[in-house]
Amino acid sequence: MELSALSLRLRALSVLRGLLSHPLVRAYGDTLTALDGTAADFADRYGALCATRFSCGDIAQAVLDAVHFDTNTLTDTINAPEAAVLNAATHDLDVLNALLALDGEAFKSAAADKFYEPALEDLPDFEAADSLPFSTGAALADYYREEGYGFFAQSSAFAMQDDGSATPIVHPDAIRLHDLPGYEMQKQKILKNTLAFLDGRDANNILLYGDKGTGKSSTVKAVANEYADRGLKIIEMSPRQITNFPKLFEQTLRSPFRFIVFLDDLTFSSEDDNFAALKAFIEGGLAGKPSNLVIYATSNRRHLIRESMADRQGDEVRVRDTLETVTSLSDRFGLEITFSVPDKDEYLYIVEQLAKENDLNLDIDELHLLAERFALRRNGRSPRTARQFISQQLAEQYGK
Question: pTM for this one?
Fold first, then answer.
């Protein structure tokens, strides 16, 4: 394919037209277009292409990611795409694969024929990149069905920003359920609810409440990691960002993935506007939340709101109204799961399991004695205390 023809075909992308704004594809296009200009213009564009290729690293992977994260006519009709859409996607993939097949010599040879400028021979070279793992629209449709598509394909975990946008977390916490011994009943309830959600069945929003350090937040993250390969995503949202729920709903509504919105350490004051806003978003507002989204929240407080004795003063009607307001949000979570401080036996069981997983070799009686002493110094037994104890012991052994 002549480079001038390739330039025209690139501009004619239809299904994957969004890729024209990708820095790498744009650099290729600008360099092809520069062949119709001057030698100096071509040299400038070619240099920019080389720089962009260098910054992208694996060129084939960069283009594959751009295709993967795109939303287009094919993704909009992914369940039953028309033949015309599949044919158009085949054309676009043919163009992209032709770009990837170009090496520096192909560009410089075309420039030499056009400009007859010997200095162009001194421009740097680069090798052709690997082609995409699909070449037809039908194969791309299969890829989208299997791997998903769009913005949320970029990661398994995201952080909500104050402006309502979500940012991919490049290196999310990799904790898994086997890293969290104990609390088996609580974990099973969360797992069953999450599996129902992934299977498209009715699932509840969950409130995990209880004492600090008992693993509430870690359990939510571990469950999300457990099923990330099934398209489960987790979006961490600060309580102050609750008013951004409508924007989040808009972003996730048409996504093929399923989402846990993670509200960590959820507590409100009695005058907090976010308290009423969250109630409406969970249940009771005019705009229902998407069926591919559930809310998992953690809190040290059963009813999520700070109470004082003054809140309970007044006549009987007022007291009842006040108490109903306090409980009205937590009651809207379909599942409430308690994480209490472990007793001595459960605490020592957690210590034993963590010691085994980390190859910490200590006599069992010594392990128990040291773990209990550590807990006394750390304000009590908890899974967090157990992990800190194991970390300290590993550090001491390493030092020896």
Answer: 0.83
